[in-house]
Amino acid sequence: MEADKELVQIPVTATLRDKMKIVLLLAFPAVVENFFQTFIGFVDVYFVSKIGLAEVSAIGATNAILAIYFAVFMAIGVAANVRVANALGAKQVERARHIAQQAIILSILFGILTGIVTLFFARPLLTLMGLEEQVLDIGENYFRVVGIPSVFMSLMFALSANLRGSGNTRAPMKVSIIINIFHALLGYALIFGFWIFPEMGVTGAALATVASRVLGTLLLVYYIQRSEVLAFRKDFWSVDWGHQKELATLGSPAAGEVLIMRAGQIVYFGFIVSLGTNVFAAHQIAGNVEVISYMAGYGFATAVTILAGQQIGAGRIEEAVSFTKIGAWMAVGIMGVLGLLLFFLGEWAGSLFSQDPEVISKIGNALKVSGAFQPFLAALLTLTGAYQAANNTKFPMYLTAAGMWAIRTVLVYYLGITLGWGLTGVWIAIGIDIVTRAGVLAYKFAKGTWMNLEKEPEVESQCHPQSTKETMSDCVNNY
């Protein structure tokens, strides 16, 4: 079977050590990819911080809105990743290919829609953040440049997810390395001016980001076309409402989960903005430093989603549980170490972005709190990946809604503003939310009530006997 060339091969008699190696095989490229992905934001904030804290706040506020776009794009990616992994685990190659292309169609549609929203509503959306007029003007300019061509963001999510679902985490890693080096060099040239490039400030940062995403999309298409499992078929570009329904059914709760989180984030960002521009800038800088730890968690979550998804597709539930536990504990260990680094080196990291002692102190305090809850964040990320692999995206959505609105947002206001704990109170509130949600997911996982296994759609409704590449019997075998 051609899928076997990309599908992760797991020996029937695999030992714990063998499984740990397999998890690392998939997680390491994803960790590296995440590192370079986060490097885009890190570089932007670092370069822009040399211009001023108002510019840092503008980009931070814009990214809070863009995160809502990412929620939709990420949901399509989650659905594609899981469905492709399930199909390949069941040796249904053409079904995996078809779903992958349908996800690309869906991503293009939503990328165009979000671009239109940005074109007409950039300033009104940013106004909701309660920004000062100066910050609002800077943010609007940045938002339009980055947000109107959203289709490239959307395509990168879908194309990368398709590759990961097939077990190929190396190609997205390579693409991430290339585009981030490109972004850093072009960003420096356009922000500060270099050689033939004029000094463009925040606009230059935005243009560099867009250019890197266009390049990333082209490179991912190249890798897709080299894949024997995922290479495009012309007859699969027609909209298939059956597969679109599958993607929507699985992706909608995942989108809802992130949208709920981002909506709550916008609300409590407003609380932080009320504490002052410098406080909000410190919050954004601390977040950009903390994301270095996130990269490990998301890498292991990716590995868990792929492995659990393929094992569930093949009907090996016990193996799915085993890989989830291994991936989760490995992530907890690694993020625990990274948490210690955040705790002890937070102020030093803050000093890279600002020379203001008060801002540096606030960054350091926030990262001390963040370092303490990194192991819980590791469990939350990896277990969420397992739930998604088991087609259970609804429960994480409900849990996120409760955590964001009943715990995080309420506590941010109470601890940060009412009690006057400022940014430290904000990060304590975030930590309490993470610990609570991780505990609930772990409890349900331990009880074995974390899966939502549905009957696959009938083969006949998904076949294309008119295809010149396969007969009806081939279609039945592959679907």
Helix-strand pattern, N to C? HHHHHHHHHHHHHHH
Which residues form runs of ≥5 with pLDDT under 50?
Answer: 1-5, 455-479
Secondary structure tally: strands? 0
Estimate the global geometry from the Cα principal axes. Answer: globular
Put simply, the count of helices is 15
Number of spatially distinct domains? 1
Largest sheet: none
Percentage of residues in helical conformation:
over 70%
By secondary-structure content and strand pairing, the structural class works out as mainly alpha
Ends apart, CA distance between termini: 13 Å
Our estimate of the beta-strand percent is under 5%
Q: What is the rounded Rg?
A: 22 Å
Question: What is the typical, i.e. mean, pLDDT?
Answer: 82
Protein name: Multidrug-efflux transporter
GO cellular component, one term: plasma membrane
Keywords: Antiport, Cell membrane, Ion transport, Membrane, Plasmid, Transmembrane, Transmembrane helix, Transport
Subcellular location: Cell membrane
Can you tell me about this structure?
By secondary structure, the chain is mainly α. It has one domain. Helix content is 79%, strand content 0%. The chain has 15 helices and no strands. Helix 2 runs antiparallel to helix 3 (93-127) and helix 5 runs parallel beside helix 7. The radius of gyration is 22 Å and the shape is globular.
